[in-house]
Design goal:
The protein is α/β, with parallel strands linked by helices. It has 20 helices and 14 strands.
Length: about 475
């Protein structure tokens, strides 16, 4: 893989010697004798790293660092300095330099430092690309953190857009933690009821008597403690929408009342005689198999069909692994801002652990994982040690998980992505492991839409061959 490195030093012998040493490491080298010439090269060429002397005529290393940091914030700068100016070099690091080396130079130390700096740059660029994609998807879907680029989620988004403006009841199904409440919010926000309330009720959290009063309200004196009349959630959602989460948990007496609301758009408060009429859009969700509940006598079949006019199924996260990098990046941004931390990305091995883990708790578990990682992180990147041990151990490092029933294209994409993560994005090494040519690998990266995760273009690396 070819990287472009700019060496800046006013001493010709040092400049030429450094250039040749770095060329032997496989980099493309550009040379400049002062800061002004260096900036001209930066404007014309895609530079990945700058190695610059600290003291130079015309434009010093300190001034060059400020210009590069301002105009090209993702390009790392390594400072070269004599022993007498180490304090200045330390100050330069405070101004944004990646690191510094003292003269005479240890070329092995320089080589290692260059590799680390370039690896950090790629992680930063990858994170910024993901952040841009997150912002684009959030603006389209009008729902923060409800994002995804997988085929499965694109179908969900399309279905939401198609039915949001209708009056049809919607049943959202899927495992716990997949984001069913976010779907309900998106349905409401995209409907013509968005200026009115979306009222949410978590049915499993309430007892039978409390749930009835919560949904339908009660009259004064209806039961002990009912000292005033109280409107229920259905009444409060008039002209808006109501979301009943875990609808499979309610008993049949309340099921009958909900069925009447759906059929007649009316009900009576608990202990009341007056009929209350409403115009509300009903959205429900469950992680249960309601057909099985019907067969077991726990759920009314007639209510099921009234609720299930439109079904939106949210697949578990393990079946839409394409969404993991995007969602992890979105949560990283959210919690870094919330905790006042400057975190620039996710280390490749940590990203591989996130990708290979099965996420039994789905999106909710991923969100909690990223919050924990941000809080525990001590540097500018999320490292494997920042992740919960269960995620790292459960990812089975060195193995690739492919869902049974996946087609060849899906399987090939998973293998290529995991291999690239395993070798820290080194496409030459990945091609060697996979037993294919580099050009073939570049083409497949493009075909599978993986460029945003592995940013160096096929054209750039092909120059190495």
């Amino acid at each position: 893989m070819k990287f472009n490195i700019l060496v800046v030093d006013d001493e010709k012998n040092i400049r030429m010697g450094l250039g040749k040493a770095l060329e032997l490491d496989g980099y493309t080298i550009f040379l400049a004798e002062d800061g002004n010439e260096a900036m001209k090269i930066m404007v014309k060429t895609d530079i990945d790293l700058v190695v610059t002397d600290l003291r130079m005529p015309k434009l010093s290393g300190e001034e060059l660092l400020k210009k590069v940091s301002s105009a090209y914030p993702t390009v790392p700068v390594i400072i070269l300095t004599g022993h007498g100016t180490v304090e200045n070099a330390v100050n330069a690091m405070r101004d944004g330099a990646y690191d510094f080396l003292t003269k005479p130079l240890n070329l092995d130390r320089l080589s290692l430092l260059v590799k680390r700096a370039l690896s950090s740059r790629e992680l930063v660029l990858k994170h910024r690309e993901l952040q841009a994609e997150v912002a684009r998807l959030e603006s389209k879907k009008e729902s923060s953190n409800f994002i995804g680029k997988s085929v499965q989620m694109q179908k969900v988004f399309e279905l939401i857009s198609q039915v949001a403006s209708t009056k049809a009841s919607v049943l959202i199904t899927g495992e716990s933690g997949v984001g069913k409440e976010m779907v309900a919010e998106a349905l409401h926000k995209q409907s013509n009821r968005k200026d009115n309330s979306l009222v949410k009720v978590h049915c499993a959290a309430l007892t039978e008597s409390l749930l009835e009063s919560e949904l339908f309200g009660h009259e004064k004196g209806a039961f002990t403690g009912a000292v005033t009349q109280r409107k229920g959630r259905f009444e409060l959602s008039d002209k808006g929408s109501i979301f009943l989460d875990e609808i499979g948990e309610i008993n049949q007496s309340i099921q009958i009342k909900i069925l009447r609301v759906l059929q007649e758009r009316e009900f009576e408060r608990v202990g009341g005689m007056n009929t209350v009429k409403i115009d509300t859009r009903l959205i429900t969700a469950t992680n249960r198999d309601l057909k099985k509940e019907i067969a077991d006598g726990n759920f009314r079949e007639d209510l099921y069909y009234r609720l299930n006019v439109v079904n939106i199924h949210i697949p578990p996260l393990r079946e839409r692994t394409d969404d993991i990098p995007l969602m992890a990046s979105a949560f990283l941004k959210e919690f870094a801002e919330e905790n006042g931390k400057s975190i620039e990305g996710i280390d490749n091995k940590a990203a591989m652990a996130l990708y290979n883990y099965s996420w039994p708790g789905n999106v909710r578990e991923l969100r909690n994982c990223m919050e924990s990682a941000v809080v525990l992180s001590k540097g500018h990147f999320i490292m494997p040690e920042d992740l919960p041990p269960s995620v790292v151990e459960g990812s089975e490092d060195g193995y690739i998980k492919i869902k049974l029933g996946s087609n060849m294209a899906e399987s090939e994409k998973a293998i290529i992505r995991s291999t690239l993560n395993y070798v820290n994005g080194n496409k030459s090494r990945a091609a060697e492991i996979l037993g294919i040519g580099r050009k073939t690998l570049h083409r497949k990266i493009h075909d599978f839409g993986l460029e945003q995760e592995f940013l160096k273009s096929a054209q750039q690396e092909s120059n190495d061959g």
